[in-house]
Design brief:
Elements lengths: L4 H15 L25 H10 L19 H7 L6 E4 L5 E7 L5 H4 L4 E3 L2 E4 L4 E2 L5 E8 L10 E2 L8 E7 L5 E7 L10 E7 L5 E3 L15 E3 L4 E6 L40 H11 L1 E7 L4 E15 L5 E7 L14 E7 L4 E8 L16 E6 L6 E7 L13 E7 L9 E6 L2 E8 L3 E8 L4 E7 L9 E7 L9 E2 L1 E3 L5 E3 L1 E4 L2 E9 L10 E6 L5 E6 L5 E8 L7 E3 L4 E8 L5 E6 L4 E4 L14 E8 L5 E8 L5 H4 L2 E6 L3 E3 L2 H4 L26 E4 L4 E3 L10 H18 L3 E11 L1 H12 L6 E5 L23 H7 L12 E6 L8 H12 L5 E6 L9 H20 L39 H12 L3
Parallel strand pairs: 30-35, 41-43, 41-45, 42-44, 45-46, 46-47, 47-48
Antiparallel strand pairs: 1-2, 2-6, 3-4, 4-5, 6-7, 8-9, 9-10, 10-11, 12-13, 13-14, 14-15, 15-16, 16-17, 17-18, 19-20, 20-21, 21-22, 23-24, 24-25, 25-26, 27-31, 28-29, 30-31, 31-32, 32-33, 34-36, 36-37, 37-38, 39-40, 40-43
Helix pairs in contact: 1-13, 8-9
């Protein structure tokens, strides 16, 4: 007997239920799913009532057991496993382009390797490098021809096919490239990391060092090109023996003391040095011997072994600026705040001088814009042979201190004459942010202050005696509409980056400013020709507004002095549309000819016709909000009715309603679907509301977080009302989710706005703010300064208010303030109040998940949750509709097998049907 489609599904579920968990007869064949109408007739009343009985009780076959890593449905797997397109890397002379092949995800075996967690970093002892690094699998090089086309492909070869490639870099003249090679299970002399060099013309690669006894140390900076023929490389000292062993009997107790009454406020973190043994391990693994190696493999040692965190040769290749950290270490801050020494050496190995030796910096205030005392951001001027510049705070690094000036920018030659003092370049009332240099003619210096969001751009003439700084721009950093853009940069022969000077009929001092071009109608990237002297600008290029999103990536025109004629301008640009994946083009002036150099296929053709729209709406207090609405291919609200919907977001802080309401996205960008983004569920028939703005606004002296809950609810309510008004989402089938601060948002919304959502997915969140007492996100007040705010914002404190199902996911090795303990304690609190919840702890994963096994399982968990508590929300059986004439995919499931439940007291009318199913399906041989 062939049962009707619906009856087969029900009877199969009933058979499993009758067999019970202890029965040896268990059916795990997936059942055919109910066809979601294409979308016409409703299930008749009797069938709907029967179905309502099935899903009113506890879910059938609860999946609480340990079944190992799971895989999501096939339609999602096919998207997640799509290979990534290669990364690109243009040569310094702009005559070649390198494409680096990538793996989609790391295997879990990369994460389970033993590592050491010391001073804020994870170290892989087998290769003397950071652990859990992603890698490339191949390198191809192409010539960039004068007409914009690519020459023949040159595949870099010489290493084995299973090599993992990292640390890829061009030589300054672009004739060679250097990279590291490592293999999965091949360890030679304690390290499986080797430095290789390849000829850019032939692609032939070989190991750089002649001796196999030289081992690399890539814990911090591994190598840097000094000139076209030699590199500075960090190696393991030849005298290094076996790792220090931890004493079985401790030397003594661990003691921390603050009898001197220092004020030290640190945001919660872990992975710091815990004891003397870990200090010894840090010394062991992080100490390097610097060597100077030529292309023929000749090696010379430079300086003494130390923990070098930065190697920086001067642009002329004569000097080396070596930055190292040293004892005394700290158990509460990472290596970045350890005592730091900066020294100058010549390339020949002669010590020049000590630039500074900064003490341990445990006492940097938690207030935004607070910095380290003393010299900081010490850099070589990229436009000069060997001139240093740096910044020094005049407020002791404490942003709470009112002082003018707050920062001073200094400049000095590598070897100053006797009695010569550093030159003051600029005094700033805000905090120094960054600078761009333009071959001595001028420099752009940026300052910023977080509390007011003010940012300023100054023009200085660093090489003139009458250097008079001139204010170029002053604006709010939140105001995307007024952003003038950033200067287009050019590579010098020494490999440094300076501002490209544009010549237009040999007149004026022009540069190019490229920007995203945010407007109320969406972002339109632009390129402006800007006169630094007069402030006048002319738009010489703008992205297509109707269909495409184009963006300037890099300047391809090359000149040794970085002077480019406007009519010879050549740029690398990207171009994409809603349904066309990003491709790369070379754009050539004066006629703006475009030459396409890539032709990548659509990564997920099954969703090529997905629908995307930037929608605008506003919340009750008048703040304008924006979101991106995605709908499945072929879906029509008027014909098909509302869909289950997933809202995925991340709150942001603003100082003004106007800035919060600005549009910062483009309707023409390609819908990229990665393995951590909710667009995957378009393949399961969901509507997706991506990144709806959730602004937390604190105008003037107000602190936004004091009204966090109210603003959070208002923003979410506005988003839900809009998608329901449009008819694309059913009001009882809307799920909410987010990662990190988005998970914090999700938990708060389920606690304080339960009427809006049917369930939530929270990944790697922090739910108890009393465990982050010295601030979080943009909150700079401490728990003791804003106790009520900390407690009110913590969903942990409102666990008793949560009634809707919530899925908690966390990486076991999360080292941020969002430790796995946050999710574990929150789960215990929820379970203690009878909340339907589930906690998934991912072994070996950190704040961001990396292993394919973990990511696939997360997707499976999320899909299970959404199908069970959103797509088949029991409150909406009356709305289930079907068309038995239309084939259906699992995407359109109305009843999910895992979500079916039944109550035998309500289905006596189906006893005969149950008996029939039991006899013909379960016991039929």
């Amino acid at each position: 007997m062939l049962l009707p489609r619906f009856d087969q599904r029900v009877c199969f579920s009933l058979a499993n239920f009758i067999a019970g968990p202890s029965s040896s007869v268990r059916l795990h064949r997936p059942l055919p799913l109910l066809p979601r109408r294409r979308y016409a007739r409703r299930i008749d009343l009797a069938t709907a009532e029967c179905a309502a009985g099935f899903i009113s009780g506890p879910a059938l076959e609860e999946d609480d057991g340990d079944h190992g890593y799971r895989l999501p449905p096939k339609e999602i797997q096919e998207i997640v496993d799509v290979p990534l397109n290669p990364s690109y890397y243009i040569s310094p002379r702009r005559d070649r382009i390198m494409f680096l092949k990538r793996r989609t995800m790391l295997p879990l075996s990369e994460l389970v390797k033993p590592d050491k967690i010391l001073a804020g970093i994870r170290i892989d002892p087998s290769s003397n490098t950071r652990s859990r690094m992603s890698f490339y699998t191949g390198i191809s090089i192409y010539l960039l021809m004068d007409d914009g086309t690519l020459g023949p492909e040159k595949v870099v070869n010489g290493y084995n096919d299973n090599a993992k490639i990292n640390f890829v870099g061009w030589s300054p003249d672009g004739q060679h490239l250097v990279f590291t090679v490592r293999y999965e299970d091949e360890v030679d002399n304690g390290s499986n990391l080797a430095l290789w060099i390849a000829d850019a013309e032939s692609g032939k690669a070989r190991p750089l060092f002649k001796s196999a006894d030289i081992m690399l140390n890539a814990i911090f900076e591994l190598y840097v090109w000094v000139n076209n023929s030699c590199l500075l490389v960090c190696t393991v000292p030849s005298s290094r023996g076996d790792p220090p062993r931890k004493q079985l009997v401790p030397f003594g107790p661990r003691i921390r003391s603050n009898e001197q009454r220092s004020i030290i406020q640190m945001r919660s973190t872990k992975e710091m040095l815990k004891d003397l043994h870990e200090e010894e391990l840090f010394d062991y693994y992080a100490t390097s011997q610097i060597v100077l190696v030529t292309l023929d493999g000749t090696v010379n040692m430079i300086a003494l072994p130390a923990i070098y965190i930065s190697l920086d040769p001067s642009p002329d290749g004569k000097y080396l600026m070596l930055t190292s950290v040293h004892r005394p270490y700290s158990s509460i801050v990472s290596y970045k705040r350890f005592p730091k020494k900066v020294e100058l050496w010549t390339v020949e190995g002669r010590f020049v001088r000590e630039v500074c030796d900064l003490p341990l910096a445990e006492d940097i205030p938690v207030a935004a814009n607070s910095v380290r005392k003393g010299k900081r951001l010490i850099r070589w001027r990229p436009d000069m042979p060997s001139t240093l510049y740096w910044v020094e705070a005049q407020d002791g690094g404490d942003a709470n201190v009112e002082v003018s000036p707050r920062d001073i920018v200094y400049m000095e030659h590598a070897e100053p004459l006797d009695g010569e003092k550093p030159q003051v370049l600029l005094k700033l009332d805000l905090r120094y942010r960054k600078s761009y240099w333009c071959y001595g003619s001028f420099a752009l210096v940026y300052e910023y202050w977080y509390k007011t969001r003010i940012t300023r751009t100054w023009v200085i003439s660093p090489d003139l005696k009458n250097n008079r700084p001139r204010l170029l721009f002053e604006r709010s950093s939140e105001d995307a509409y007024s952003n003038p853009g950033s200067p287009v940069m050019c590579r010098t022969p020494s490999g440094t980056l300076v501002i490209a000077r544009i010549k237009r009929n040999c007149e004026g001092s022009y540069i190019l400013l490229k920007g995203r071009g945010a407007t109320p109608k969406g972002s339109t990237p632009f390129l402006d020709l800007f006169n630094v002297n007069t402030g006048e600008k002319e738009r010489i290029w703008e992205s297509d507004k109707e269909k495409y999103y184009e963006s300037v990536l890099a300047l391809i025109s090359y000149h040794p002095k970085c002077e480019v004629q406007l009519d010879q301008l050549k740029l690398l640009v990207s171009k994409e549309s809603r349904r066309e994946i990003t491709q790369y083009y070379v754009k050539i002036w004066p006629d703006e000819k475009q030459v396409q150099i890539t032709n990548y296929p659509h990564p997920y053709p099954q969703l090529a016709l997905l629908q995307k729209e930037i929608i605008r709406y506003q919340r009750t207090d008048g703040v304008k909000l924006t979101a991106t609405l995605y709908l499945p291919p072929g879906y029509s609200p008027s014909e098909d009715g509302p869909l289950p919907c997933l809202i995925w977001s991340y709150p942001g802080e603003f100082k003004s309603k106007e800035a919060a309401g600005q549009v910062r996205r483009s309707p023409n960008k390609f819908a990229r679907i990665n393995n951590k983004f909710p667009l995957l569920w378009l393949a399961r028939g969901f509507a997706i509301l991506a990144d709806p703005t959730i602004p937390i606004i604190g105008e003037g002296n107000q602190e936004g977080n004091d009204r966090y809950i109210e603003q959070l609810i208002a923003s979410a309510e506005a988003a839900v009302n809009e998608i329901v008004r449009r008819g694309v989402a059913h009001p009882d089938k809307i799920a909410v989710g987010g990662h990190s601060y988005g998970a914090f948002m999700t938990a708060n919304l389920l606690a304080h706005a339960p009427h809006l959502f049917c369930c939530g997915i929270a990944r790697s969140g922090a739910y108890n703010r009393t465990l982050t007492p010295f601030g979080f996100q943009k909150e700079t007040r401490t728990l003791w300064e804003a106790t009520d705010t900390y407690i009110k914002m913590s969903p942990f404190m409102s666990a008793n208010k949560i009634k809707k199902p919530i899925l908690l996911i966390h990486g076991e090795d999360d080292s941020k303030v969002t430790t796995a303990m946050q999710s574990s304690q929150f789960y215990d609190a929820l379970k203690g109040h009878g909340v339907p919840c589930r906690l998934v702890i991912l072994p070996f994963e950190q704040h961001q998940y990396a292993a394919r096994e973990s990511i696939m399982h997360i997707i499976w968990e999320t899909d299970r949750w959404l199908q069970k508590y959103c797509a088949t929300n029991p409150g909406n059986i009356r709305d289930m509709e079907t068309n038995v004439d239309t084939p259906q995919s699992p995407t359109d499931a109305v009843l999910d097998h895992e979500a079916l439940s039944l109550n035998f007291t309500k289905i006596s009318s189906l006893i005969k049907l149950i008996q029939l199913a039991f006899s013909q399906i379960v016991f039929r041989k």
